[in-house]
Amino acid sequence: MKYLLSPSLLSLDFTKAGEQIKAADEAGADWTHFDVMDGQFVPSISFGMPVLKSFRKATDRPFDVHLMIEEPENYIQAFAEAGANRITVHAEATRHLDRTLHQIREVGCEAGVALNPSTPIENVEYVLELADMVLQMTVNPGFGGQKFIPYCLEKIEALRTLIDEKGCNTDIQVDGGVNRNNIREILDAGANIIVAGNAVFLGDVVENVQYFKQILNEYQDGL
Ligand code: DX5
Ligand code: ZN
């Protein structure tokens, strides 16, 4: 299992986008988390395919695209063409989750399924074999800079147990309110991919990325 950092571009200072993305690269960030919001599934609107296509040129890191949109099945092909490597859909937003996960694989991407804080983990139990990753939201999706919801830790633990029981190799990504004070308990609970927006892009990007990477490397080495 790999322990990885995926900084969320939602918290970029867009007047310094290229510079900040490069700083995260050089400091050792692993992936790039790209949050798509439609103003329907979540209250806010962010950015879409043309922005992904443009950012794709700024870094060689894989793009982990988090679709916070209704009926994401209609946009899988478009995000794959725009340069997504891993596409994550919300279990709550697609009527035929099994089919949607197959669709993601068919366009050559890795597949992720996301759960809101209040959605039971049983909703993904039967599709774990089809998913490379479960994204556990630890805030209500829609905005960066929110406070981590503590009961989600229990869900991360339960998900890791379920994944182990099934003998799957599924990543657990945690998204929302991750910071220097809670990262260790999140990793202890069983997460292995960390999304961080404000905790990376507010302040010194290089120092922030290095801080998180150092902890992730400790877990990677089994300390
Ligand atoms: C929230 C997004 C997150 C967000 C995380 O709905 O899915 O990826 O950017 O930002 P922080 O780390 O600031 O909570
Ligand atoms: Zn996200």
- Helix and strand element order: EHEHEHEHEEHEHEHH
Arithmetic mean pLDDT: 98
Query: Radius of gyration, Cα only, in angstroms?
Result: 16 Å
Strand elements, count: 8
Which term fits the overall shape? globular
Count of helical stretches = 8
* Adjacency order of strands in the biggest sheet: 1-8-7-6-5-4-3-2
Q: Estimate the strand proportion.
A: 15-25%
Q: What is the helical fraction, as a range of percent?
A: 25-40%
- What oligomeric arrangement do these chains adopt? single chain
Structural class: alpha/beta
Low-confidence stretches: none
Structure ligands: D-xylitol-5-phosphate, zinc ion
State the gist of this model.
The chain has 8 helices and 8 strands, in the order βαβαβαβαββαβαβαα.
Task: Describe what this molecule looks like in 3D.
With 223 residues, the protein is an alpha/beta fold. It has eight helices and eight strands; from the N terminus they run E-H-E-H-E-H-E-H-E-E-H-E-H-E-H-H. It has helices at 17-27, 49-56, 76-82, 97-106, 152-165, 183-189, 198-201, 205-220, and strands at 4-7, 32-37, 63-68, 86-90, 110-115, 133-137, 171-175, 193-196. Strands 1-8-7-6-5-4-3-2 form an eight-stranded parallel beta sheet. The chain is globular, with a radius of gyration of 16 Å. The two termini are 14 Å apart. The structure holds D-xylitol-5-phosphate (DX5) and zinc ion (ZN). D-xylitol-5-phosphate binds at residues 8, 10-11, 33, 35, 66, 139, 141-146, 175-178, 195-199.
